[in-house]
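User: Here's a chain of 298 residues. Predict its fold as tokens.
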Amino acid sequence: MFKSFLKAARLRTLPLSVSGIIVGSSVAYSHGYFDTVIFVLAVATTIAFQVLSNFANDYGDGIKGTDAKRTGEKRMVASGLITPAQMKKAVITMTVISLTLSITLIYLSFEVQYLVYSLLFILLGVLAIIAAIKYTVGNSAYGYSGFGDLFVFIFFGLLSVVGSYFLYAKQIDFSVFLPAFVVGMLSVAVLNLNNMRDYKEDEKVGKRTLVVKIGLEFAKYYHYYLIIGSLLFMLLYVLFQRYSPYSFLFLIAYIPLFKHISFVYKNRDISKFDSQLKIVALSTFLFSLLFWIGQIIS
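Assistant: Prediction complete.
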């Protein structure tokens, strides 16, 4: 049973989920605001949110039959290895863990002198939990109506990067929005690739992802724009800062990403996109690490 829940947690998604925290923390570090305790708690909280989202996704798609003939990684509820009741309990447990970590992080970041900020971040934490669950669970699941891309951009990009920076600095520096756009767009690229892979099955079961709405060919162009656009935003950020040659270390992460674009362009077998998911996700994680290294050296 433990192995089944470990598979349902989909550990390969975790590096992508913490990329925004690393980027936001690296900007905070370069501005002199970094705190190790906040960083560790922010990473733990983000991982808890991601596992919650993965459990809820497995549960929601499982009970709706969406995962019955899916390509790629096997889902636990759809395969019968975990019952819907067991997964529902796991979702509730992860909700409690996520909320507890969020409140602890918020308290240690703002304490009592920033009460308004604390209340705002508690609200954001609750919204993140609701978003994680409502992606596939319920009759109004937004993942079934094409809004998944928007929510991923907001929560993986803007909230993750800008929010983590604010935890340290207690203020907004608008330059941090540029790397937030980068992480958001690359995270959406992972979702788009996943939805292109599942395009045929999603269309059959009525899951109206953005790919289903715009068609596979336009989804490919959308995919190219996301990756190339993220590079342009990052170059813009570097040029606006006091940069050194080390500030361009992040470009290394774009080598596999541009090879990936070539693969997507040439390939007509969408089932083969499954192998590309880890390339985009790990390249995003690599980008976040190289970005931080560049900030430290610079």
